[in-house]
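User: Second chain of the day. Same drill as before.
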Amino acid sequence: MALFLKITKRVSISLLFLSFFVCSNVLAQRGGNNSTLSVFLDIPGSIDLDYIRQEIPIVVYVRDKDLADVHIIMSTHASGTTGVTYSISFIGYGSFEDKNYELDFWAPSSNNFYETRTGYTKTIKMGLAPFIAASSLSSRMWVYYDTIELFDQEEEEDRDPWNYWVFETYGGYNLNKEETRSSLHIRYGFFADRITRESKTRLRPYGNYYERKFDTDNGTIISTRVRGGFDSYYIKSIGDHFGVGVFGDIFISTYDNLNFSGIISPAIEYSLFPYDEATRRSITLAWKMGAGYYDYVEETIFDQTEEFMFGQALVLASDFRQPWGTIRAGLTGFHHFHDFASNRAEVFANINFRIVAGLSLNVSSNYEFINDQVAIPKADLSLEEILLEQRRRATSYQFRANIGLSYTFGSRVTGVYNPRLN
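Assistant: Same format as last time:
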């Protein structure tokens, strides 16, 4: 026991010294040189970091927020098929602690990669301008303006012959063939979206056809799956905290034993924080009630070939993107009205938490309690159908989890852009 206490004491002292060293090192590195501006880029992996560093070489890019004078947080928010909003927050530390604001860049779906990359980089330049102007780097800064014709929002709407509607059509054909097997996937669809501050509308028909062939000594085995449908919704904004809408869905899937299903669902959502803050923090509670008609490919385990059903769902979701990391978590509950035992519940969480400088914890998990599989076929599945996944099988739960730690150390600078031998 005495040996255990002695070892514990030494470990505690070692950890204390290590923590003191890390904290001292962080304090010494941040703001240690008034002739530079240290920036930490906290942005999605799809963003071109090299391009940003190349276009904005006046600042020093560091590997952790605790080493930075300016912490830049970027989040992306897709607006259906109309485009993507890049919300970029600028958080100052030290002598810049009073500077904290957000800029948005809108990239329409008609943009190519280069136009979008130039756009969000230009927005970052504008966001860094006040920090550079307040530092000793201001002598290296120039400001240019383009003279443009100004017009109000009503004139802009008059100039838009499409009235904010954006359309997209797609199709694809994939073939993979070998001597004894082949696979085929055909997909097609159409989007029609209209998004304004007051409302969102979507109309989306789509279809998929999958086919796999296997040559065996006993002949050829063919597995086919058909999946398609029509998604639609209309959502209306009501003030800063409420939204109401109606969803209409048609779904066909041989894998899910559905010749046809049609569901219509009104819904309402309350946001604890104003929707304008959704890029940084969000807690929402949504309720949806639906009525649907279902026509099954095969008779179900409940002896049904077709039926009408009513149900409701409640969704509580939270989403925080802050300097200390990101958290997205929530829970969902659903049940049918004809049988409260026919229900489903889901709990999910995704956390990326910065413990200390360079050390991050990543945890994600999802657990579903499944008791609403009313479309499971009554007939037993053959081994061939199971292996080829031609029909969905009954299950009472589904669980996924991931956990990991990452630690970055070394030079406080992340490096400059160098394209050689890329």
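Residues 99 and 159 are 37 Å apart (CA to CA).

User: Great, on to the next one.
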